[in-house]
């Protein structure tokens, strides 16, 4: 049975899973609910995600929710079976560094960038004016985070030194923020800029941008 991802093609969290699956060489099917009310139904809450969120994964009857948990599961089960790409190393210390940067991403990077993208991309898509106060406040927080990243990335192409799941988790929100006009936050920091170039030019990510016509979001 083909892996099913329930969610939306433009969801940043779904995009993470698409990228992981493509890097691992695993085919999948995207199942898109017809509207947001569908993910709040009793059936969805009971069988897909008890908090009424996306994405949700079905792997031959095994149901799992929460993006980072799903990503780790996919790597643990499928890494090395179809491609040679390593997203979580088998070495305990190297794997710990990946987990460390996943925690950093969730705690310090995604929190402010989520609010920026929420205003500059998704509020606009709903026909609302972005709240620039929220954008400014969270831009300041993201600046602080990126200053730390600039130091952490000194002499490295990737967060742990090698491409990993930690890098993938940063890509969709960063892509949206840069496409919405926030690129200077990354471009003015040489190490951060180099890192972004390396991770955003992965062939699997470029395939996703094309397949799901992500550039159309900004037209």
TrEMBL record:
<dbReference type="GO" id="GO:0043295">
    <property type="term" value="F:glutathione binding"/>
</dbReference>
<dbReference type="InterPro" id="IPR036249">
    <property type="entry name" value="Thioredoxin-like_sf"/>
</dbReference>
<dbReference type="InterPro" id="IPR004046">
    <property type="entry name" value="GST_C"/>
</dbReference>
<dbReference type="GO" id="GO:0005737">
    <property type="term" value="C:cytoplasm"/>
</dbReference>
<dbReference type="GO" id="GO:0009636">
    <property type="term" value="P:response to toxic substance"/>
</dbReference>
<dbReference type="GO" id="GO:0004364">
    <property type="term" value="F:glutathione transferase activity"/>
</dbReference>
<protein>
    <recommendedName>
        <fullName>glutathione transferase</fullName>
        <ecNumber>2.5.1.18</ecNumber>
    </recommendedName>
</protein>
<dbReference type="Pfam" id="PF13417">
    <property type="entry name" value="GST_N_3"/>
</dbReference>
<dbReference type="GO" id="GO:0006749">
    <property type="term" value="P:glutathione metabolic process"/>
</dbReference>
<dbReference type="Pfam" id="PF00043">
    <property type="entry name" value="GST_C"/>
</dbReference>
<feature type="domain" description="GST N-terminal">
    <location>
        <begin position="1"/>
        <end position="82"/>
    </location>
</feature>
<feature type="domain" description="GST C-terminal">
    <location>
        <begin position="91"/>
        <end position="219"/>
    </location>
</feature>
<dbReference type="InterPro" id="IPR040079">
    <property type="entry name" value="Glutathione_S-Trfase"/>
</dbReference>
<keyword id="KW-0808">Transferase</keyword>
<dbReference type="InterPro" id="IPR036282">
    <property type="entry name" value="Glutathione-S-Trfase_C_sf"/>
</dbReference>
<dbReference type="InterPro" id="IPR010987">
    <property type="entry name" value="Glutathione-S-Trfase_C-like"/>
</dbReference>
<comment type="similarity">
    <text>Belongs to the GST superfamily. Phi family.</text>
</comment>
<dbReference type="InterPro" id="IPR004045">
    <property type="entry name" value="Glutathione_S-Trfase_N"/>
</dbReference>
């Amino acid at each position: 049975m083909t892996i099913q991802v329930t969610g939306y093609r433009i969801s940043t969290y779904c995009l993470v899973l698409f990228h992981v699956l493509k890097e691992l060489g695993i085919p999948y099917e995207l199942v898109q609910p017809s509207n947001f009310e569908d993910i709040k139904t009793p059936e969805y809450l009971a069988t897909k995600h008890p908090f009424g969120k996306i994405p949700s994964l079905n792997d031959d009857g095994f149901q799992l929710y929460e993006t980072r948990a799903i990503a780790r599961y996919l790597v643990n089960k499928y890494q090395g079976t179809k491609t040679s790409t390593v997203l979580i190393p088998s070495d305990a210390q190297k794997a710990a560094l990946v987990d460390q940067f996943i925690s950093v991403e969730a705690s310090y990077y995604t929190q402010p960038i989520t609010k920026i993208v929420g205003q500059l991309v998704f509020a606009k898509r709903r026909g609302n004016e972005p709240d620039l106060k929220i954008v400014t406040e969270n831009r300041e927080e993201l600046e602080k985070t990126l200053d730390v990243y600039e130091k952490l990335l000194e002499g490295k192409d990737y967060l742990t030194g090698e491409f990993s799941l930690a890098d993938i988790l940063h890509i969709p929100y960063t892509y949206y923020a840069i496409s919405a006009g926030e690129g200077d936050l990354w471009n003015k920091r040489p190490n951060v800029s180099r890192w972004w170039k390396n991770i955003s030019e992965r062939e699997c990510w470029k395939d996703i941008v094309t397949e799901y016509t992500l550039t159309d979001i900004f037209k």
